[in-house]
Amino acid sequence: AQKITQTQPGMFVQEKEAVTLDCTYDTSDPSYGLFWYKQPSSGEMIFLIYQGSYDQQNATEGRYSLNFQKARKSANLVISASQLGDSAMYFCAMSPTSGSARQLTFGSGTQLTVLP
Amino acid sequence: GAVVSQHPSRVICKSGTSVKIECRSLDFQATTMFWYRQFPKQSLMLMATSNEGSKATYEQGVEKDKFLINHASLTLSTLTVTSAHPEDSSFYICSARVGAGGPTDTQYFGPGTRLTVL
After folding, report:
1. Are β-strands B10-13 and B113-117 bridged in parallel, bridged antiparallel, or unpaired?
2. What share of chain A is helix, strand, coil (3-state, %, to 5)?
3. Helices then strands (H, E): number in chain A?
4. Which chain A residues are Cβ-neighbours of B35 within 8 angstroms?
5. Strand pairing report for A74-79 and B76-81
6. In a 3-state reduction of DSSP, which class is residue A38?
7. Pairwise CA distance, residues B37 & A64, whole Å
8. Interface test with A, best of B58, B104, B106 (most A CBs within 10 A)
């Protein structure tokens, strides 16, 4: 079984500053993938970034980076130079890389508000 | 790339009617599609996993006779809510995945369908 924990229900950040959204996970799978999604008020789930459990380097995608600490089982999302449009709900998720289904397990989400 | 469409975006229906929601992968072939349900201020709850040409696998507690899933092709899956009741009102989101492992296991989501049953 897999479990994702996001302990920050809400976060505030000043525009142009960086913010870290926390995510810890628990799994018995030897190989897995970690994902972050953004859900604005419109409801669409937007894929942000992927990190494989065996990837040596932390993933980066533009202003998004994933601070992956395998020993601590954490996969925090770092957003640099926050913009007003970054205000949204953010979900951390994971899936095993073996097995036929490889379903996503989601955390409870963090509501990020960027202040002007 | 990796665009998933969902139709309709919003539907209001009377209690007892059936509603069909379509999910399409527009620029890739999806080996697997997923259907989720989301209540306000909550996370996504997986309802079922659908592979093209085979029966869907439903999560525990999800009534397969009430939520009919058809995965007719590698680009289309449909969810039919049969005999809808007010408690079925929710936000339904589909996702599609190429599923070749690693980053290609990324699920791409449709924009969602907000169902309101009166």
Report:
1. parallel
2. 5, 50, 45
3. 0, 12
4. none
5. unpaired
6. strand
7. 27
8. B106
Q: Where are the alpha helices (DSSP H) in chain B?
A: none
* pLDDT tens figures, A11-28: 999 999 999 999 999 999
B52: number of Cβ within 10 Å? 16
Cβ atoms of B45 and B112 within 8 Å: the answer is no
Burial class (CB in 10 A: 0-12, 13-18, 19+), A59: buried
CA distance readout (Å), B73 to A84, B69, B81, B116: 39, 12, 20, 28
Phi, psi dihedrals of residue B103, rounded to the nearest 5°:
-60, -25
Check CB contact under 8 Å for B42 and A108. Answer: yes
Q: pLDDT tens digits for B62-105?
A: 999 999 999 888 899 999 999 999 999 999 999 998 776 667 67
For residue B8, whether the previous peptide bond is cis, meaning omega lies within 30 degrees of 0, is yes
Lookup: tokens for B8: 């309709």
d(CA A58, CA A69): 9
Residue A98, both tokens: 């073996």
